Automatic annotation (TrEMBL):
Entries under PANTHER family matching the protein: APICAL ENDOSOMAL GLYCOPROTEIN PRECURSOR, MAM AND LDL-RECEPTOR CLASS A DOMAIN-CONTAINING PROTEIN 1
Record domain MAM: where: 1-112, 159-320, 384-557
Repeat among keywords: yes
One GO term describing the cellular component: membrane
PROSITE patterns cross-referenced by the UniProt entry: LDLRA_1, LDLRA_2, MAM_2
Protein name: MALR1 protein
């Protein structure tokens, strides 16, 4: 189907309408291919008209010439309980010159679950009227999965929030940088954030979002606090939520758990980067022997196209705690760790947790997941994120300097090496070849790591390395920002070292301009290795190399859940569970490639 110009009016609209549909199931998705090519081809948008609602909901937009190619659009419809109709509008203001076309329109997973004769077992729920059999994890999650609403009957409203009437019993944290915003319809910035909420699937519904535009800056944080919960018994407390992370500069959404009111808690889950224009469901299993609280933290990225949405938060198998969490003294910067190892029965192939004497496998040390209660297994490791503020090296070290004895310290002053720097400390003229501002704070007071090329000679190299990393997961990558500006820049390399073997993962040479540049390097599954930054000096002093905001993303190894996989998950050959939408995506999510098998 394509558009022919038939009118000479200034404002022209071509409209293609769908039949009227009765309803959809919770996983309904619409896909189509579109072609929008020409110098003055105009905009296009898909609108949703729901019976009983006066205002339509915009589901998709194309604003401009997108090249001589067919492109795929994927629109998440979700559960729509009322009759509805879709309208594809092509809008041209003034002169129309181009070709617009649409083809291969497909509705997928739009039917309600089929009725069944039986529905047995504790992991299933039998819908009252439709007689469908659904996973028990879908009960009381603010989504009508049954089609008759019976899976959402008799639910505790204190354990749910769809933000239609405010924040429910959740609160904004007063210790963060800014607040989450409750909104309807699209966020103010184009090409980022949701167009609609998850609860209703329309612009009428409400959700929370984190605004990434100014005055907010890179790594500013907005934190949402849950009510307090009682300790969990043998059955875990289950936390479900839907998140939306769409935009080129989306940074991070993370979930923490804490048992002390003035602590930052410990990380349960996080997601980095653009995840597409869709709401994504996440389920977390929480255990605790103490009353606890959940913290949802959004972190601003490096630009205004980084809005993050949050909707339909619910808990299952949890009970509210009528009390307050304890506090700890703010003068204590970290939990005390015994100087000597406690009594233990650990073998030489096991690591001894400092506080408890508990034994864990040595492969669990320095794997980006704390397995000891005191986190001592991750204490002498590289940090997941390092911004070098407070002059902290985050575990990165320079092997060549450490080999020098104390008597040789004076000789290290004039060698080519990595050191902490900031714009406020630069001497006149140095800003021409060294960063005037850091990447984290974007100020002259912010710190970064750099090699001072006024030291050393042409061809000298400086290495800074992580401690040995025991194991990483299948999606592990390292993201960092580099600054390479000057007339005689040498090179910067990212190396991978295991044993005595070193290989190159990434390299950049020569001047790259007076700005911070982002680099991303895939690591994947690796074991017992180090990551090394190697800077090579150019022919003169006008060539400093700097790095900042080094992040290891999605690097913790897969964790066997110790439970059967749900109907929304795929069971890997190694018994790990992954979401079914990760199948056949050319990524080894299972760590054994069973999710990419041709026999699936």
């Amino acid at each position: 189907m394509f558009i022919l110009k038939t009118s000479s009016s200034i404002s022209q609209v071509a409209r293609l309408q769908s039949p009227k549909f009765r309803h959809t199931g919770s996983n309904c998705t619409l896909t189509f291919w579109y072609y929008n090519y020409g110098e003055s081809v105009g905009a296009a948008e898909m609108q949703l008209f729901v019976d009983g609602l006066k205002q339509p909901t915009v589901l998709w937009r194309a604003y401009y010439n997108e090249g001589n190619q067919w492109l795929k659009a994927v629109i998440q419809l979700g559960r729509l309980p009322r009759p509805f109709q879709l309208s594809l509008d092509k809008i041209s203001l003034g002169f129309y010159d181009g070709v617009s076309a649409i083809d291969d329109i497909t509705f997928e997973y739009c039917a309600l679950p089929p009725p069944t004769l039986t529905c047995e077992g504790p992991n299933h729920f039998w819908c009252r009227d439709t007689k469908a059999c659904i996973d028990s994890l879908l009960v009381c999650d603010l989504v009508d999965n049954c089609g008759d609403g019976s899976d959402e009957d008799n639910c505790n409203p204190d354990l749910q929030c769809n933000f239609e009437n405010g924040l429910c019993n959740w609160e904004q944290d007063s210790e963060d940088d800014f607040d989450w915003i409750r909104v309807q319809g699209p966020t103010p910035t184009l090409n980022t954030g949701p167009l609609k909420d998850h609860t209703t699937g329309t612009a009428r519904g409400h959700y929370l979002y984190m605004e990434s535009s100014k005055p907010h800056q890179f790594q500013d944080k907005a934190v949402l606090l849950s009510p307090l919960f009682n300790p969990c018994g043998k059955r875990a407390c289950i936390f479900r939520f839907h998140y939306h992370m769409f935009g080129k500069q989306v940074y991070k959404l993370s979930v923490f758990q804490r048992t002390v009111s003035n602590s930052k808690g410990w990380l349960l889950w996080y997601k980095f980067g653009n995840q597409g224009n869709r709401w994504i469901r996440q389920t977390l299993y929480i255990s605790s022997v103490k009353p606890f609280q959940i913290m949802v933290k959004g972190t601003v990225g490096d630009g205004f196209t980084g809005d993050i949405g949050l909707d339909d938060i619910s808990f299952l198998g949890c009970t509210l705690y009528n009390g307050n969490l304890p506090t700890i003294s703010t003068t204590t910067s970290a939990p005390s760790v015994p100087a000597t190892l406690p009594m233990n029965n650990c073998t030489e192939e096991e690591f001894v947790c400092r506080a408890s004497g508990h034994c864990i496998h040595m492969i669990q040390k320095c794997d980006f997941r704390p397995d000891c209660f005191d986190k001592s297994d991750e204490s002498a490791c590289v940090m997941e994120l390092c911004d070098f503020e407070d002059k902290n090296h985050c575990g990165w070290h320079q092997p060549a300097l450490e080999q020098m004895s104390g008597n040789d310290t004076i000789h290290t002053m004039n060698i080519f090496k990595w050191e902490l720097g900031r714009g406020a400390n630069l001497y006149p003229g140095q800003a021409k070849h060294c960063p005037l501002i850091d990447h984290t704070m974007c100020t002259e007071e912010g710190w970064y790591l750099f090699t001072d090329s006024s030291n050393g000679e042409f061809g000298d190299t400086a290495d800074i390395a992580t401690p040995v990393i025991s194991l990483t997961g299948p999606k592990c990558k390292i993201v960092f920002w580099n600054h390479m500006n000057g007339l005689t820049i040498g090179s910067l390399e990212l190396l991978y070292k295991t044993g005595n073997k070193t290989s190159k993962l990434w390299t950049q040479s020569g001047s790259q301009g007076p700005q911070w540049n982002r680099a991303e390097v895939f690591l994947g599954i690796r074991s017992n290795f180090q990551v090394i930054f190697r800077a090579k000096r150019g022919v003169s002093y006008m060539g400093d190399v700097a790095v900042d905001d080094i992040t290891f993303e999605d690097c913790s190894p897969l964790l066997n859940p110790g439970r059967p996989c749900t109907s929304e998950e795929f069971t890997c050959t190694n018994k790990y569970c992954i979401p079914k939408d990760k199948l056949c995506d050319f990524v080894n999510d299972c760590a054994d490639n069973s999710d990419e098998s041709p026999t699936i």
